[in-house]
Design goal:
The protein has 204 residues and is mainly alpha-helical. The protein is built from 7 helices and 4 strands.
Amino acid sequence: MMAHSDATRHMDADTLMGNIILLIVGGNDNHSHNTMSGSVLALNEHPDQYQKLRDDPALIESMVPEVIRWQTPLAHMRRTALVDTELGGKTIRKGDRLVMWYVSGNRDEEGIDNPNDFIIDRRPARTHLSFGFGIHRCVGMRAGRTAIEIVWQEMLKALRQHRGGGRTEAGVFELRARHRILAGAHSSLMMGTLALCPSYMPRS
């Protein structure tokens, strides 16, 4: 698809290789896995929020963007300035290398109330900057969010199934197996999403 797209077929070798690596990393070692594991830790450290979720599984819808904010999938990203500009009172020259700290933006007290609190029913729900915007938007953001939602739907389902008889060894094994299958499906979904967007070429 890249070879036949007008947006990608004339790239030089270095640019082509850079974008192929981006596709491989985005589809296989994607960073939503960080948020999946981070969600388990966050709910373990905040038992009151975990109880909320168990009492009302519908809160998964608002919990997912909150945990994406809380455990940012990707901590930072480097970019190169294409023009001279000024940002926050600082002069940025063309060619300067910059680091965008998503983890810092997701704790910005100017834009988020109580940014250091983990609140699964936070309103408004979407308060994170984790997937970027515009040309820097992650093309797999919907796949990432959906994968985390499915993981927690399945985890709560498994917990409900084993609540009456206790956490049996078979039940724990089943839960782990589901998580591995979903993680693999998420990687495949990411690759499919990226393959459908051959003209999406991240810039400096």
